[in-house]
Input
Amino acid sequence: MDIILQQVSYAYAKNTPFEKRALYDVDLHIPSGSYQAIIGHTGSGKSTVLQHLNALLKPTEGSIKIGDVEVKPEKKNKQLRQVRQKVGIVFQFPEHQLFDETVLKDIMFGPMNFGVSEEEAKKRAIELVKLLGLPEDVLEKSPFDLSGGQMRRVAIAGVLAMNPEVLVLDEPTAGLDPRGRKEIMELFYRLHKEKGLTTVLVTHSMEDAARYADRIAIMHNGKCVLEGTPNEIFNNEERLTDYRLELPQSVKFQKKIEKMTGKKLSTICLTEESLAEELTNLIKKERES
Ligand SMILES: Nc1ncnc2c1ncn2[C@@H]1O[C@H](COP(=O)(O)OP(=O)(O)OP(=O)(O)O)[C@@H](O)[C@H]1O
Output
């Protein structure tokens, strides 16, 4: 399912003394099956964009096409419920939205609310608990008796239980330890690849954007100021600095090494693994010559 934002502007509390413009003429095309990262400093408009992707917010100007549903200002649209079913959002600290007596009921709530049978919803919950690496006996526990990391996984299972076609992730690893972060990011990547899930990730982590995304959009003061592949984005240090963003660690190391040795590596190294590979090749070449 393609998502296309055309000239989207948004103001909070429009036509009140508290009006606050958050987006200005944002154009963005997220093709079906792609992994799009959205980066930008605090307050640049990332979360506001995200909330347009499943029509939680409607543009105050412009339009957004979500599959074949077009969302426009002032237009009443009966298909929004269908859109919300297909586009799942994992908000920051999603565990804050857990509410039911048991994990099972919590995961089943969303799909049953959308007319899925009890039997099917239960089947999905059991499968998802396994997929997310939670012990099976977690299903009958209260979500509030779990650890923070487990609660996060249960909340993610609740979003996945809707069988979304698009998964929108707003800083999904905030507050987790490095191992927990990696496990969750790898899980989302696996889902993206195996189920062909279109994935949109808002992140402050340049490393995650560089490692996982096919394309990256930069938000700055409510505008989408740059969009491209990770290679294109991270080859442009000057503009990143203008937008108060940094290079991923591996690219920073690469630049230091290139400066110290006076040698250029053959490609930009977006991950630790590719930096290690490039350095190994360089050392081999040096030995051979
Ligand atoms: N509910 C709201 N009411 C009024 N203004 C808001 C509201 N939510 C966000 N804003 C304002 O809109 C602008 C964009 O905010 P947004 O949350 O989209 O940025 P962000 O890039 O996601 O920031 P962060 O990285 O801190 O999450 C900011 O100036 C913010 O203060």
Summary: The chain has a mean pLDDT of 93. The beta strands are 3-12, 20-30, 35-39, 61-66, 69-71, 87-90, 166-170, 198-202, 215-220, 223-228.
